[in-house]
Structure formats: C-alpha cells, structure tokens
Write a structure and sequence with these properties.
With 354 residues, the chain is α+β, with helices and mostly antiparallel strands. The protein is built from six helices and 14 strands.
C-alpha cells in the first residue's frame, strides 16, 4: 500500500471501491515511471511515463481520446483517431518540453526494440508549470525521458510533486500527479478502471471535496484570484484512463468523455485558457493489432452493461485529482513563487470533525 497520506486518510468519503493500490497500476500490466527535477530555484519539473502493457510488451492497445477544452497539447491523437490504437508509452511533461520528450521516446523505442512498426507517433501531453518552474530553461533532456521510461514499475506509485506534476498547481494550491482506481463487482464483470492525472487547473473558490465547497473557505495564499470569484481560469489537466474491460476505440472515446464529469465533481468549469485533454485505453484484446491473419480476434463489451465503467471512470477521476492535492507539498520555485499545500487539518475538520 502507499505510504504517503491520501485523501481517504483524511476522511474524504469517496463513492466506489478501489483496487489493491487505488492506482492506475491496478490494471494488470501497467507500469508507471517518473523523473523528478528539483534544482536551485528555477528547476521544478519532470516527466511521467505510462507503459500500457509494461516496458517489454510492445503490442498496441485500443484507445480513444477527448478534448474538453483544447488550450493544450497531446501528440499522436490524429493516429489514434484514424487507427484506434495507441502504439507505445504515454508521457506527460511541461508545455515547452513536449518536443524533446516525444523525440526521446522514439529513440528509446528504437534502442529497446519496442516499436510495433518501423515508425512511431508517440503520445505526449503537457500542462504548464511556469509559476514554479522556468519553462523557458528547457531543463528536460532525453536522458530524463529514458529514466522515466526505464524506471517504470507496477504496484503503488508516488503522487504530488513527482514526474511531470512536479511544478504543477491545482485550485491555487500545490498540485501535481494523482491516481486512483475502481474495481467493479463480479456481477458487473469484475473489471478495473484506473486513472492517472496531471492536475494544474482551477481557482480556489471552485474547489469541492465530496460535494463540500471547501475552497471558498480557504481563501488565503491564492496567488491568482486572491480567493475571489473571477472567471479567468488558465490551468490545465491531463487525464489518462485505463481499463482491462474489452472496449473498442469508439467505446474508449466515450469513457474518456466521462473523465470530464469526474473533473466537474471537484469544481472545475474548464475555462477558456484551460487545456483539458483525456486519453482512455484498454489492455484487453491483446492480439487485435496482429498482422499475420486477415481478421483479428476481438471482443467488445455489450453496450447495455457499459454504465458501471462510466461510473468508475467518473469516481476514479474525482479521487485521483483530490489525491494529487492531498499528496502535494508546499513548494517555492521560480522567481521566489510559493504554492502552498492543501491544509490537511482543514480537510480532516470538514469530514471527521477534528
């Protein structure tokens, strides 16, 4: 189990039952790795890498994606739309490092023999960490991408100020990386849905935890809004949804859309300046991309039993975002800016009365 404090430890009453680690890695085969860079005052950034089938299995997965608001970047999505497949790892970093991360993934795939074909169109997404990190310093180098890819593992994973989430903020508190999962009952297929977010969005007054409007009572040290209610959200969030349920690409696009509802449950309104981009993939149908037969063996979950997966996506997304907030620690960075951690005592007071 995870050793850091998570939202459930503070009494937040989330709906639904999680998997063993309450993480995206509860979906069998998925591995997650980080590179976290914290140096001097200017460097507060990193890389998050997700291997859908682990580092050594290059078989593609069915995938779909959705843009709730497109002031952001997620490379490789045109090929996902066209082919229905995600071919290789997913990486998340800061806005000005997307190019180097994308190129480094291709180099890693070539050197590791991890390409499904003779070419690659990696999926790399971003949020902007410019308040705490000097994004114009271009601190992410290819070796940092390799480190994240090679260090990826299953099991419990770190949250908060790690990987691509190192310098990110959420609801004007320190934010970053968060994860959660939901395990369906056997009567619903026993499938698992796991979510990983890079949370860098929101104004303080919007924040809600399990329906409690906590943010409007925590107005101190809100650097962008002063705790007031201006409609000028500039942040972003990347949400990756994984499942072992046998879903086809069009069904996975539907799953990705449901992540927006989990985001909304935490209070976000997806402002004009926000890059809210969501990816969903399934580790089922492992031979769907095989090239030796004319017809690939594929299973599809019937539409009349897909609702529990929608619900699981919404609930796991909500919890992953709050886990990112709870795990993140106060950080001072670029130009002396400080992002303060969500006060755990106020959360405990709201839900446990102490």
């Amino acid at each position: 189990m995870s050793t850091h404090i998570r939202a459930r430890d503070l009494g937040v009453p989330f709906l639904g039952g999680p998997g063993t680690w309450n993480a995206i890695t509860d979906v069998a085969g998925i591995e997650v790795g980080y590179t976290t860079l914290i140096e001097g005052q200017r460097v507060r950034t990193g890389v998050t890498a997700i291997h859908p089938r682990g580092k050594t299995d290059k078989r593609p997965v069915f995938a779909g994606w959705f843009s709730l608001n497109g002031n952001g970047e997620m490379t490789g999505t045109a090929w996902i739309d066209e082919s229905g497949f995600l071919e290789g790892p997913v990486a998340i970093t800061n806005t000005h490092s997307v190019g180097v991360v994308r190129d480094a993934i291709i180099e890693w795939q070539i050197q590791r023999g991890a390409m499904h074909q003779s070419w690659s169109m990696p999926v790399v997404a971003e949020t902007a960490d410019g308040y705490l990190n000097d994004m114009n310093g271009f601190f992410i180098k290819p070796e940092h991408v390799w480190q994240a890819l090679d260090s990826a593992a299953s099991g419990p994973i770190a949250e908060g100020n790690v990987g691509g989430g190192t310098g990110m903020m959420c609801y004007e508190f320190k934010g970053g990386t968060g994860t959660a999962s939901r395990k369906l009952a056997d009567a619903q297929g026993g499938y698992t849905v796991g979510v990983l977010v890079q949370a860098n969005f929101g104004l303080r007054w919007q924040l809600q935890l399990a329906g409690v409007a906590l943010g409007r009572n925590l107005t101190d040290a809100a650097p962008f809004s002063g705790g007031q209610t201006p409609y000028s959200e500039q942040g972003s969030i990347i949400i990756t949804v994984a499942t072992d349920a046998p879903l086809l690409p069009h069904q996975l696009k539907r799953l990705a859309r449901r992540a927006a509802l989990g985001l909304a449950r935490t209070g976000s309104m997806a402002g004009n300046g926000s890059g809210d981009l969501f990816l969903a993939f399934s580790t089922a149908n492992p031979d769907a991309a095989q090239t030796t037969l004319r017809a690939a063996p594929v299973e599809m979950l019937a539409l009349n039993v897909i609702d529990p997966l929608f619900h699981a996506t919404v609930l796991a997304t909500e919890e992953a975002i709050i886990n990112a907030l709870v795990a993140a620690k106060t950080m001072t960075g670029h130009e002396g800016h400080t992002a303060y951690a969500l006060p755990h005592d106020r959360v405990r007071e709201a839900f446990l009365g102490r």
